[in-house]
Amino acid sequence: MLLEGKVAIVTGGTRGIGLSIVKSFLAEGAKVALCGSREETVTKALDAIKAENPKAPVLGYWPDLTSNEAVSAMVNSVVETWGTLDVMVNNAGISQSTPLLDYTPEEFQRAMDLNVTAVFNGCQAAARIMAPKGTGVILNTSSMVSIYGQKSGVGYPTSKFAVNGLTKSLARELAPQGVRVNAVAPGVTSTDMVAALPEAVVQRISMGIAMGRPGEPQEVADAFVYLASDKASYVTGVVLSVDGGALF
Ligand code: NAD
């Protein structure tokens, strides 16, 4: 197994891409703490995992990810429970599609708070544990919009460009301390949001994808497994596109 004995945290781990990462990490032998925004959704995700495997080593948290103190406290709690932290996945994020002239400052700020500040908080809290021990992996969820931009909802691509900036800069800052930092940039992925779209809309979106279909959360999670594992021991500072050859 690729992650035997590793301790991981996955934010936004209650559904979608994050839940697939959690399940894949567990299948590869890791212990996983998943985070969600509310106790109810965290409990639901834990129950679903335990229904498949009652002995799965999984914990649930619902800190305010935009609070540096709350994220630190959550990371410290995981380290107290399992003794260390090997892999930090900063995956929670919100998307936006509001046209520029309709944006409120508050909406723009919400994207910055969860998609950028929370990622900074996760990177910093993880590095406090990983850098002194000289090993660890930090993975951030970016998006294909961090490469192409998007036509409406400028806060979302802006925040994901920032995720790439955090990733590439921290990869350089933390490499001397043995910590690798990478990002995965998913394309259109069949999470609940995409699954709820009418078939005609999915077909139109798929025309902009070389492979002609949306990705599955598992296909994105597989990239996280690779980057978290020792198979990627010489990989740092990359933004790995998993987008079926997006043509946008
Ligand atoms: P999702 O909406 O299915 O899940 C989002 C997760 O983030 C949930 O676990 C939720 O609990 C958590 N979350 C949301 N708001 C939160 C908050 N305020 N505080 C704490 N946690 C919160 O999303 P998804 O599609 O699985 O997306 C996961 C990541 O992938 C995001 O960063 C998103 O930007 C990125 N992404 C998704 C797609 C896609 O097509 N689905 C494409 C590119 C990038």
Automatic annotation (TrEMBL):
<protein>
    <recommendedName>
        <fullName>3beta-hydroxycholanate 3-dehydrogenase (NAD(+))</fullName>
        <ecNumber>1.1.1.391</ecNumber>
    </recommendedName>
</protein>
<keyword id="KW-0753">Steroid metabolism</keyword>
<keyword id="KW-0560">Oxidoreductase</keyword>
<dbReference type="GO" id="GO:0008202">
    <property type="term" value="P:steroid metabolic process"/>
</dbReference>
<dbReference type="GO" id="GO:0016616">
    <property type="term" value="F:oxidoreductase activity, acting on the CH-OH group of donors, NAD or NADP as acceptor"/>
</dbReference>
<dbReference type="InterPro" id="IPR020904">
    <property type="entry name" value="Sc_DH/Rdtase_CS"/>
</dbReference>
<dbReference type="Pfam" id="PF13561">
    <property type="entry name" value="adh_short_C2"/>
</dbReference>
<feature type="domain" description="Ketoreductase">
    <location>
        <begin position="6"/>
        <end position="220"/>
    </location>
</feature>
<dbReference type="InterPro" id="IPR036291">
    <property type="entry name" value="NAD(P)-bd_dom_sf"/>
</dbReference>
<keyword id="KW-0443">Lipid metabolism</keyword>
<comment type="similarity">
    <text>Belongs to the short-chain dehydrogenases/reductases (SDR) family.</text>
</comment>
<dbReference type="InterPro" id="IPR002347">
    <property type="entry name" value="SDR_fam"/>
</dbReference>
<dbReference type="InterPro" id="IPR057326">
    <property type="entry name" value="KR_dom"/>
</dbReference>
